[in-house]
Amino acid sequence: MTHFNVSFATDVGMKRRQNQDSGAALPEIGLFMVADGMGGHRGGETASSMAVAVITESVRCALQQGGSTPAKVLTEAIGAASKAIHERAAKQPELSGMGTTTTAILFSGDTLTIGHVGDSRCYFIRPGKIWQVTRDHSLVQEKFRAGLITRDQIKTDKLKNVITRSVGFEPSVEVEIFEMDALPGDAFMLCSDGLSGLADEKSILEVIEKRLYGENDIKSAATDLIKTANDRGGDDNITAIIIVKDPPEQNG
After folding, report:
1. pTM (predicted TM-score)
2. How far apart, in whole angstroms, are the C-alpha atoms of residue 104 and residue 178?
3. What pLDDT score does 151 carry?
4. Judging by DSSP bridges, how do beta strands 121-126 and 176-181 pair with one another?
5. CATH code at 231?
6. In terms of C-beta density within 10 A (0-12 exposed, 13-18 middle, 19 or more buried), how is residue 200 classed?
7. Could you read off the pLDDT of 223-236 as tens digits, one per residue?
8. Can you state the percent helix, strand and coil of the chain, rounding each to 5?
């Protein structure tokens, strides 16, 4: 059986009144996810919490029934969330236009599958190295890939917060799937753009390495990362989940 060490924290940040991020860490089924909601006073919070609830239930049911690949399980679960959120918004005008990002990891044996919509992120960490696994579904990333702006201009572009896909804005959504092997001791981080927009990969790696590889205290890593983002302005809600697969015994 696969074991996980997990650090999970979320925070409203320094400038928002309401936390519209949601997340879940469900090691018993190998499911972890972050959702960053958007849409008016109540819409964002409603959309992200609905996404987490619907995806959790859908994945649980699919795993109990068996017979589906992890990619199909996540694609259908995120699709079900998009349909449910869109239908809820249609019934309640005050929630019109709500949607959410969703980035979810589902572990299965020695592999993991990521279902991804929006600009929340999944990172892969090994000692001394960090990689961004997911691709942001955002206008600035499209401009960057088209060669219209440089990497340095991404953070200052006026369209940096505009995403090109969301869960719930339409009844269906295109889910991007990533699949990879996961070795014992490998670490992964899910986060909303409230963290990735203020902390670069070097800063993230420094915090995780200190806690995971230096002090064997992964539980504090997510809180440390939130403090890093808040110290740099805390412009948005911040959520981080760090997952270590089959950690060494000294890590708990």
Report:
1. 0.95
2. 10
3. 81
4. unpaired
5. 3.60.40.10
6. exposed
7. 999 999 999 999 99
8. 40, 30, 35
159 vs 77, higher pLDDT:
77
**Owning domain of residue 128:** 4-245
Phi-psi region of 241 (alpha: psi -120 to 50; beta: other; left: phi over 0): beta
Enter the DSSP assignment of 94. Answer: G
Is 252 a member of any domain? no
Does residue 178 fall inside a structural domain?
yes
Contact 196, 226 (CB under 8 A): no
Task: Confirm whether 91 is domain-assigned.
Answer: yes
Look at the chain and report how many structural domains it folds into. 1
More confident residue, 50 or 1: 50
Q: Would you say residue 250 lies in a domain?
A: no
Quick: pLDDT tens for 30-50.
999 999 999 877 899 999 999
